[in-house]
Amino acid sequence: MKILNVGSLNLDRVYQVDHFIAGKETLAAARMDTFAGGKGLNQSVACARAGAEVWHYGAIGTDGLMLKQMLEDSGVHTGFLKIRQDQPTGHAIIQVVPSGENGILILAGANDTLTRTELQEAAAGFGAGDVLLVQNETNLTEEAMRLAKEKGMLVACNASPINDAILHASLDLVDLFLINEVEGRALAGVPGTAYDQILACLHAHFSKAEIVLTVGADGVLYQKDNQVLQQGIYPVPVVDTTGAGDTFTGCFLACRARGMSAPACLKYASMASAIAVSRPGAAPSIPDWQEVEAFAALQG
Ligand code: RIB
After folding, report:
1. Pocket flag, ligand 1, residue 243 (CB < 6 Å)
2. Ligand 1 midpoint to CA 226 (Å)
3. Taking residues 76-81, what's their average pLDDT?
4. What gap in Å lies between CA 211 and CA 54, rounded to an integer?
5. Are 122 and 4 in contact (CB under 8 A)?
6. 8 A C-beta contact, residue 36 and residue 11
7. How far is residue 285's CA from residue 242's CA, in Å, rounded to a whole number?
8. Is residue 242 within 6 Å of ligand 1 at its C-beta?
9. Which segments within the chain are labelled E, that is strand?
10. pLDDT tens sequence across 121-144
């Protein structure tokens, strides 16, 4: 099972602040770090570090070469990564407060310059039994899902960030949703509902799809046909939650590629994201498989 990730790459400018900035306020940050990020890059890194074979199709500017390096250092295939001469790399401005919670502002830059020709070239070597992974931070998300479906690939969608574009996309193309409760509520059209009801609504809307719904401190809910599962979190001291969901998504798919059962995929992905939130940054915080196994051994 090979994975093709059509996804974003961002330079994350991470500001440590004592509270999220409000309108009309000027706020001094304690420090700023630049990390590799972008939901697409983070998920490719998480897949590869957990042992999956992943190819990343996306675009950066000439100012984003550290992102290419991060992918390569993590074992991601970058033959389809494009470097635009006339576009800046996508970036994110991220506030992190002392609890580890974050607020993220993104500017797409080169992430919005994917082309159909490049997409077809990238997908040429993939077919039945392989996985397409998409998020919602690039253009061509729906085209990628349609192409993958024509090829008999499994379509995995992390519908994040949630917005009108993804809400109006043909989500019946999706075989596997990996979403959080905010995205789940929006996709199910049930604001303010309890988590199990969100899952039930999503299952009613997308009855053929496998649904993985992360619900913060309450862990993760899962449904495929009549199989409903729940996995709790692994409590750790929280430093920075940025990229935790991406780590979960990538590790879940890598576990799937290892042939693990759904309960085992949920368990190992939850452990990987626990490790990620205990460290700063998005991509740099993502553990490799040895670290996940060592964490698992400590759980007894
Ligand atoms: O999911 C975390 C990511 O969201 C960050 O790395 C940031 O770049 C945004 O894409």
Report:
1. yes
2. 33
3. 98
4. 22
5. yes
6. yes
7. 9
8. yes
9. 2-6, 10-16, 31-37, 53-57, 59-61, 82-84, 90-96, 102-107, 131-134, 154-157, 176-180, 210-214, 220-224, 227-231
10. 999 999 999 999 999 999 999 999
9 touches ligand 1 (CB under 6 Å):
no
Domain span including residue 90: 2-299
d(C-alpha 86, C-alpha 180), whole Å: 34
Q: Ligand 1: which atom is nearest the Cα of residue 160? A: 1
Whether pLDDT at 300 is above 80: no
Q: What's the mean per-residue pLDDT of the chain?
A: 96
**Element (H or E) spanning 256, and its range?**
helix 244-257
pLDDT at 259 (0 to 100): 96
**Residue 78: Cβ within 10 Å count:** 17
User: What is the 3-state composition of the chain as percent helix, strand, coil, each rounded to the nearest 5?
Assistant: 40, 25, 35
User: CA-CA distance, 160 to 213, in Å (whole number)?
Assistant: 12
Can you tell me the distance from the alpha carbon of 243 to that of 255, in angstroms, rounded to the nearest whole number? 18
Q: Which two tokens stand for residue 95?
A: 């506030």
Considering its fold, how many domains does the chain have in total? 1
Is the CB of 36 within 6 Å of ligand 1? no
**257-273: per-residue pLDDT in tens?**
999 999 999 999 999 99
Our answer on whether the CB atom of 240 is closer than 6 Å to any ligand 1 atom is no
CATH number, domain containing residue 107: 3.40.1190.20
Write out the H or E segment, with its range, that includes residue 274.
helix 262-277
